[in-house]
Each structure stands twice: as structure tokens, then as C-alpha cells.
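Researcher: Here's the sequence for the chain we discussed earlier.
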Amino acid sequence: MKKILPTSTVGSLPKPAWLATPEKLWSPWQLKGDKLIEGKQDALRVSLQEQQLAGIDIISDGEQTRQHFVTTFIEHLSGVDFENRKTVKIRNRYDASVPVVVNAVARKKAVFVNDAKFLRKQTDKPIKWALPGPMTMVDTLYDNHYKSREKLAWEFAKVLNEEARELQDAGVDIIQFDEPAFNVFFDDVNDWGMAALERAIEGLNCETALHICYGYGIKANNDWKKTLGAEWRQYEAIFPKIQKSNIDVVSLECHNSCVPLDLIELIRGKKIMVGAIDVATSRIETPEEVANTLRKVLKFVDVENLYPSTNCGMAPLSRNIANSKLSALSAGTEILRKELGL
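Model: Thanks. This is the structure I predict for it:
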């Protein structure tokens, strides 16, 4: 990115009420058929405008065309049964009814490429597109075919790479892989998770990002955070492996978290998406609070490598709250730009 301190969202933003039930994950669509396709495109336009009005520099799709950041991609793959579901514990934290892998998984057709092409036509700004990471995909279903988390992750990495290459060709500037599972299954990350992600980014020339957070601001995640103590050192177990990877940008939860920021030293040289907005509360950050979070991180990140962002997605929040938080992010970033004479 040419702009110094370019602001962005991590991924999801609230959907308009006419498209899906507000403030809810896995929210059902309010429209069907051609009207749903048109409604999704209208929502992309609205999300683009709201991000621009808030001063966001790197535009995302806000996940307006998908119900969930993982399962919407999976439901377009063959070999997965969505009818006969199983209940599993997601990231060792909460139970969810999930689809079942019953045969070899394959990508039948592009999933988000047409949406990306549509968004690309609407703006000249850089655009970022988020995909689920292989390990988090594995953790969001029941495997009754491969019987191996590692084998399934490698298969998912192949289909993700197919999608990512087409997104790149559609004009996407940054492709982000969401891996909240990286903050839970440390041994797997080091044994095969990071290698699978490297397979997913193979051959890409655009920027690649890895988003690792402590989850949406839902009760199960907030309750889990309360068990982590005064210091959240989960990143420490996986940063050395990430440092050696070909990933360009690492997205971290920093604001209102107990993450020791000096851990970022372990990935010195990488570009860092600094979560300076707390998605687990409806309270609007002040611009000065945002600027202060960014100032702290500058001790460990060169300014040209710092991307101010949100901690995680904001789908469970109201649109007014989310838009106000994005405006605070931009205003806080501008404070720092002026301080630094940028």
C-alpha cells in the first residue's frame, strides 16, 4: 500500500436489515433467488460507501454476500454434507451444529470471485478479501472421510489456493486468511497448520494477510478470555513459525486485550494489522484511545509496516456502532499521522 498507516477492517461488517437479521451470526437471508443476488450487490455498495465515509483506506467486502466467514465457503465445495449435521465443539470453546465431510472435497466453481469483480468495479481504492484458513475450516466441521485433521487441512489448502488465485486475477490487492484456530491449537500450527497455509498462498503475487484473534465479541469468546489471566501469550507459541513464513501481513488483537505488545518483536519485519478497535463492546473508542494503541505498537513495528484495523469482525454489532467505531479508527490514525508529520 502506498499510503502510510492505511486503515482497514478485519472482515465482517453488519448487514442491512433488509438483507439479513441484524446483530446475529449465521443470520438467515431475508431475500431469495434473483432478489437475493441483487440485495447482496446493493449491500456491497452500501458497505463500500460506509467505509469510505468513515475514512477507511483499504476496502473490504464486509462479508455482505456470506452468512458466515467459514461455512459459506465450505457449502460451495463437493464432498461435504450439510443435511446430516453433527455437533462439535468449536475451538474447544462452544458447541455448534456443523456439516460433515463424507467424501473427497473439491471446489466445483468459484465462490467469491464474481462478488470481488463487482466490488472492484465500484472503487479505485485497494480492496482486501478474507478467506477462512485451512485449520479453522477443519475446526468448523466434522470429518467422516479423511479421519485426519492434517490431511483435510491440506485438501482445503488446495481449494483455497484455487480461489485465491482467481481473486487475485479479479483485482483483489490483499487476500487475508482468517485463522482464529491458530490461537488454540499451537502444536498443530507448528506441525502442519502453517505449512498448510503456505500451500494456500502458493503462487500469489498480491499481498497476503493472516488474521489471528480471540474471536468475535460473543459470550463464548468473552467467557474464554476471562480464563486467560492477566497476560494473553498465545501468540508467543506460533510467532516464530509465522516469522519464517511467506505471509506478508499479520493481523492481531491489541486494543482492550491483555496481549503483551512486546510479543510483536517476534515477527519484526512483517507488516502488522493492529487491532485498535474492540469488537466485544458497543462502546465507541475515542480517537485518542485509538492513537494511543497505535503509539504503543510503534515501538515494535516500523511505521511503514503498520496497518490500523479492528480486532476482529463486527457482524454482531449494530450498523451505527460499527460505523462510529470505523470513524474513530480513522480519526485516531489521523492524529498519529499528524504527530509523525506524515
